[in-house]
Design a protein that fits this description.
2 domains; alpha+beta; 11 helices; binds flavin mononucleotide; 8 strands; globular; Alpha-Beta Plaits; NADH Oxidase
């Protein structure tokens, strides 16, 4: 199941034998032979491109991880810490959208950001399912909301909840039960025409990846977060959506509608649209819980 990418190529006339690529290759692909770099364990390569990125003489070519000049004039980083923190704090869940759709080129730019998120073993295994057709979004909402209604209805039944505890764990069942009143109000409101489930999304993006890969959950979450930040910088508001994500994991009807590959699982969803009213202020968060050792 592990995909083996093509190995890097060493351009021998350019290699000075400094050994930086050997040191920086995280997968032990490279070694020194006759005082120049050589590919010794090609089957370990994950195409991360660190070898080519550190080489001072452009002596490494990787067909999948081609290097470019650094985007900034200096050695980077591209933005200062204050700007990063401001961007992170500016990103908020945007739930009220203007009527106009988000153009496909803009959605493509948003997804382009996800491409550069880290993935375990550089698998780059994140897939995107994008809904932009309003009729499809309505169908997605109807199926999700009716699945939610059923699932929370079941959790209200003490016998079902008792047995669900063996599968999901007692604490998760309690967590879901505590959420029943809020979920019911979301369902009722949405059914009566005030969409508190999807917030009248102009687009919906789901990220999915192979369920058997233990890094998939992280990969998808990292990628969708990158997308969310790019969306913000493009003036597009996004809101992560746990209702769709959880229904996509467990509701057979929704699974069928989505048609993801059989061995894939949805690990993140966001609704998108142009923000109706801009936030005027940044807000505080609790202090982080940190243990220093
Ligand atoms: C995994 C996850 C699921 C979420 N699901 C929903 C959702 O279904 N509906 C919603 O309105 N907001 C949802 N949110 C948004 C959170 O409520 C929001 O991130 C949180 O209140 C903090 O607000 P902020 O994103 O504006 O900083 C979700 C967020 C995360 C991370």
């Amino acid at each position: 199941m592990k995909r083996i990418p093509p190995p890097p190529e060493i351009i021998s006339g350019k290699c000075t034998g400094c050994g930086l690529c050997v040191k920086y290759c995280p997968a032990l692909v490279l070694g020194m032979q006759n005082k120049i770099a050589a590919v010794e364990r090609r089957e370990f390569c994950v195409a991360c491109g660190h070898c080519g990125a550190v080489c001072p003489t452009e002596a490494i070519f990787h067909p999948e991880a081609k290097v470019e000049s650094h985007l900034t004039t200096g050695p980077g980083p591209a933005v200062n810490p204050e700007a990063v923190l401001k961007l992170l704090r500016e990103r908020r869940s945007v739930r009220f959208y203007r009527p106009e759709p988000v153009p496909r080129e803009v959605l493509e730019k948003i997804i382009e950001a996800g491409r550069y998120a880290p993935t375990g073993s550089n698998s780059q295994n994140v897939h995107y399912l994008v809904f932009t057709d309003p009729r499809e979004i309505v169908k997605l909402r109807e199926i999700t909301v009716s699945g939610m209604e059923k699932a929370f209805g079941m959790m209200s039944n003490p016998i079902v909840a008792f047995y669900a505890g063996f599968i999901l764990g007692r604490k998760t069942v309690k967590f879901l039960q505590d959420y029943i009143p809020a979920a019911k109000s979301v369902i009722e409101s949405t059914k009566s025409g005030v969409d508190r489930a999807f917030w009248n999304a102009r687009a919906v993006i789901l990220v999915h990846a192979p369920a058997w890969d233990s890094s998939s959950a992280f990969n998808c979450v990292a990628a969708i977060n990158y997308c969310a930040l790019m969306a913000h910088s493009l003036g597009v508001g996004v809101c992560f959506n746990g209702f769709i994500e959880n229904s996509a994991k467990y509701d057979p009807k929704l699974k069928k509608f989505l048609g993801l590959p059989k061995d894939h699982r949805c690990f993140g969803v966001m609704t998108l649209g142009y923000q109706e009213v801009k936030f005027r202020r940044l807000v505080e968060r609790r202090r982080p819980s940190i243990e220093w050792r």
